[in-house]
Design goal:
The chain is an all-alpha fold and 180 residues long. Helices cover 73% and strands 0% of the residues. It has eight helices and no strands. The chain starts with 6 loop residues before the first helix and ends with a helix.
Length: 180
């Protein structure tokens, strides 16, 4: 690379990334509340996959995605929004996408990986000067932001999975077919 980006170019790029990823992630949480089976349908789905009690985890996921998306969009507590991306996507990989491979069109975990990486990158780089973090003097980027997002996100996911994930036993026919 011949020249580094100017400060304004960097700020614009970070703002653009936040203005795309943040609202999309927030809408994902909003959809758990308002679309399809609404929050009760989401709770049933969480129960069926083994996240018990489903009504608690449906709310945690929906409102966690909303809060993470809004904070990311605004550049507010960005390292903790990165933690939210990593934690929520790690749980999604483990409970829904694990065993399906990488590709999203095969219900794989590529989208989750990309969102988690964006969370860690934004926590490490910071949200830029065009953010509420900058306006309020919150500076948790760099190594601290990296650790908050990556280590905190994986730890939060592991804690949640360890305390609440109880997958249903496989059906006898499915288990027999899997064994061979």
């Amino acid at each position: 690379m011949k020249t580094l980006p100017t400060v304004d170019q960097l700020n614009f790029g970070l703002l653009l990334l936040r203005l795309v990823v943040g609202p999309v992630f927030a809408f994902h949480g909003f959809a758990k509340i308002t679309r399809g089976g609404r929050l009760s349908g989401t709770a049933g789905w969480f129960d069926s996959m083994g996240m018990r009690p489903g009504h608690v985890h449906a709310r945690l996921a929906a409102f966690g995605e909303l809060a993470t998306g809004v904070c990311l969009t605004l550049g507010l507590l960005t390292s903790f929004a990165g933690l939210g991306l990593v934690a929520l996507m790690s749980v999604a990989v483990w409970t829904v996408h694990r065993g399906n491979g990488l590709l999203v069109f095969q219900n794989g975990w590529e989208y989750n990986l990309v969102l988690g990486a964006i969370g860690v990158a934004l926590a490490t780089i910071g949200p830029g000067e065009w953010s509420l973090d900058d306006a309020f003097g919150i500076d948790l980027n760099g190594p601290a932001g990296f650790l908050i997002a990556l280590v905190g996100g994986v730890a939060a996911a592991a804690l949640l999975l360890g305390t609440s994930y109880r997958p249903p036993a496989p059906e006898p026919e499915a288990q027999a077919a899997a064994e061979g």
